[in-house]
Amino acid sequence: MLSELKNEQIEVADAQIASAQDVHLLDLLIVFARRRRFIFRFTLGTAVLSVIAVLVLPSRYTAETVLMPPGQNSSSMSSAMLSQLGAAGGLAAAAGAGLGLKNPGDMYISLLKSRSVEDSVIQRFGLMASYHAKLPSSARLGLEAHSKIALGAKDGFITISVTDRDPKQAAAIANGYVEEFRKFSASLAITEASQRRLFFQQQLLEANENLARAEEELKRTEQSTGVLQVDSQARSLIESAAELRAQVVAKEVQLQSMRTYATEDNPELLMAKQQLAALQDQLAKLGGKDANASADIIVPKGNIPEAGMEYMRKFRDVKYYETISELMAKQFEIAKLDEARQGTTIQVVDAAVPPDHRSFPQRTLTVIAVGLVGFFIACGWCVLAEGLQRMKNNPDEVQRLDQLRATFRN
Fold first, then answer.
1. What is the distance between the alpha carbons of residues 361 and 365, in angstroms, rounded to a whole number?
2. pTM of the model
């Protein structure tokens, strides 16, 4: 019996709550119906004001350029070619391993946002006058406010968006970003392949300069001593020693490069040390104790007269620098092929074109949004006004309002 009474009481309470909610909802509908003219006029007024505002506001257009950054993976073709070079190929592989890049997209975005690129864009399109900026820093802030450079999370493409009042100007600035970046990046070694190409290019220039000096010294020696050639045995020994000296130098450079990212216990580093020691032993047997020294090579004295010893030393230097130059030239050509395969500049997927519709203001959506906001404000004001009116008609509520006013006066 008690449980049945409790259930009945609960049902009655639920019915009373539902009835109160229905009455409350009906009261709101009655208030809205009574003040429908005010709601309609206020909503219409805000919509009209929004129409006037969107017609007065200047239109802005957004142009977009989509770019694809180059890949940063090492070329399998160049790796195979490097492996055929033996010790010299190890040098190129070590240089490439030390110069790898983890996230090329973020790097290219940072370069596009760099001060050098932004200043070039500002100067090219005269944006200081367009943005009414007196300082270059203010013009850069204006350019950053009117442009957006983002990296796609899924496709990895870079999107450059530029907003301007003139659609043609917006497209020109978006494409100008790419052109100015290419000019700026031409002097930079960005990708792994371009870094290796720049490194071997410098080494090749240095080797060619040394070779030119050695050839000039040999020419002067020929003119002063009259010795024009040496016998085949001496020439063979000189060429062997020069090649060993070049290999020793290449292996030492490889070790220096490997130490930038490998510890002394690294197996590849230990193997490179053993190879260097073996090359140095072979060079020592020929009399060249140091790869950079000018020690004499063991040659039977009966085969070369004393007058030809100076010529032999100069000839040995020429063969040494020839070997170094040839070695660097091969590696330089491989780096260039790898760079061409990889691509050193970003590629334009979609060039910016003058947009055919405005990006701001969006008139239809703006009018609808402002109209809805005005409608809800009018409804809220009606509910508030109705509540105040009921409070004034209730003596108890009027007394409480008088007490509240008195409290503020004190």
1. 9
2. 0.49
